[in-house]
Design brief:
Pfam families: NAD_binding_10 (PF13460). The chain has about 270 residues and is of the alpha/beta class. The protein has 9 helices and 11 strands. The strands form 2 sheets. A 9-stranded mixed β-sheet has the order 3-2-1-4-5-6-10-8-11, with helices on both faces. The relative contact order is 0.13.
Length: about 270
């Protein structure tokens, strides 16, 4: 398999790259800064797969056709979005990358006949409605974060997530035979830099402000991509369940944290 990894120098992506390479897959890592190329290429040393670096500024992706150029150049089987403005450059840059560029890559990827998986690394609090499994105090924490602490980022992620959900729903409803496609929205809590614990709470969680190591996020992303039966919104914080068992359970039980959100409303808003 060939993976297009957008945001290849992000901390989650740097953990994810060697995991994908260990499967014998190839990775094309998209980064903006040429100074990061050597570090990323070094991740391929001694691995089964090969890694390449594509220099591109995602802020310059202004349309689906711009994204299509990169998709066509790379020719991936899977696409992983692990990019973001990271709070640098003001609200306009956050909207340009976390929202608009993400949507453009989804449009291009969902339409590409050779792509069968799109994994978005999102954010646990990216939702409109309080889920039935989350206590009021935890939901209040999400609301405070979304509207007072990181309002632009939260808005951008919610827009991108809902667009992805609408695209995935429409694809399943398309007339005629549908090709297999996994739209995976991985939604970690507060990100930590500590080493992986390999113990998680996955699928849904009452912990609106729970935390998880970036390395564990990468491990879960790798495991989700390795299967043909994972899709939907998958919340993630560190917990007590073994990570492999958690992924197996979520896939088997078809857990989807989109429950309680208005998917029909998403479709009508983006595709009236």
């Amino acid at each position: 398999m060939h993976v297009l990894l957008l945001g290849g120098h992000g901390k989650v992506a740097l953990h994810l790259t060697p995991l994908l390479l260990n499967r014998g897959w190839s990775v094309t890592s998209v980064v903006r800064n040429p100074a990061h190329e050597v570090e990323i290429l070094a991740l391929g040393q001694g691995r089964k797969g090969t890694v390449k670096v594509l220099l591109s500024n995602l802020e310059d992706v202004k349309s689906p056709s711009d994204a299509q150029v990169i998709v066509d150049t790379v020719g991936p089987d899977y696409v992983v979005w692990s990019a973001g403005a990271g709070g640098v450059g003001g609200p306009e840059r956050t909207i340009a990358i976390d929202q608009e560029a993400a949507k453009h890559f989804m449009t291009a990827s969902f339409a590409a006949p050779g792509i069968s998986k799109f994994l978005m690394v999102s954010y646990l609090g990216s939702r409109r409605n309080q889920p039935s499994w989350m206590p009021d105090d935890q939901w209040a924490g999400i609301m405070k974060t979304n509207f007072e602490i990181i309002p632009t980022y939260a808005k951008a992620k919610k827009e991108a997530d809902e667009y992805m959900t609408a695209l995935a729903a429409l694809q399943k409803r398309a007339p005629g035979p549908t090709r297999p496609f996994q739209a995976i929205n991985l939604r970690p809590g507060v990100l930590l830099d500590q080493p992986a614990t390999r113990k998680v709470e996955l699928g849904i969680t009452p912990l609106g402000r729970g935390s998880v190591t970036r390395e564990d996020v990468a491990i879960v992303a790798d495991l989700l991509l390795s299967r043909a039966d994972t899709e939907g919104w998958i919340d993630l914080v560190n917990g007590e369940e073994d990570v492999e068992e958690a992924v197996e359970r979520v896939a088997r039980e078809k857990v989807d944290a989109v429950a309680g959100e208005d998917i029909e409303g998403m479709i009508k808003r983006f595709f009236p």
